[in-house]
Amino acid sequence: MTTSVSLEENVPDEVSLRLHTAVEAALRAGRHTLSYFRQSRLRVDWKADNTPVTVADREAEELLREAIGKRFPDDGILGEEFEEQAGTSGYRWILDPIDGTKSFIHGVPLYGVLVGIEREWEAVAGVLALPATSELLYAAVGGGSWHTVDDAEPQRAKVSDGSTLDRALFCSASVNGFDDQGRLAAFEQLRKAVWLHRTWGDCYGYAMVATGRAEVMIDPIMNIWDCAALKPILEEAGGTFTDWQGNPTIYGDEAVATNGRLFEQIMAITRKA
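RESULT FIELD:
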């Protein structure tokens, strides 16, 4: 999969150049993960926090770091699988080489490569590549959010115009996460309020909201590398990306994405939790 990168003209060159690199690197890393996807030879290791990791995760992050280091050696890099690299430029790249490793190791195609770009602690651009479904989402602040499938020309990503919960699709990862965080009551309230709930989790649920195919995606626990790429993509698509209290941040250790129109209705539930 290759793609041209579309952006509105008011994106600073230094951000645009980095976003182009991010798109190229994410697509390359994503293609690499496919060489391990649904392969019986794939070995799964377990990290100290009892989460799985594979050679595909590590090699994909190495490819991302290599691409960044060649073009922007003064930028910082924070990734899930390796130690943070300090920078001096004011820019930091935040990487999740496989968001949805559990899906990946079970042969489920709803995993992605996430590349976020931060400038002075603000998320300014993000890329979400879905290699197994041949989808790509990317955005820069002020430059719009864009979506493409296969080799088609990028189209503007836009959230849905749904305005009632009883017609909304609510996505999440596993229900266990809500239970583990003491938020099962909020989950049940949400589930009963919406038309449909599906556990199309990890980054795929956020892609669904950004492209108007779902109205809400909620996670009770997140890491910064899960969030950094998503905030620009959701906001530039007309939606919201916040913590459970409604603060627009990538540092909330949790996430709520909405199409904007349902934001206050969702917050009426999550803020109580």
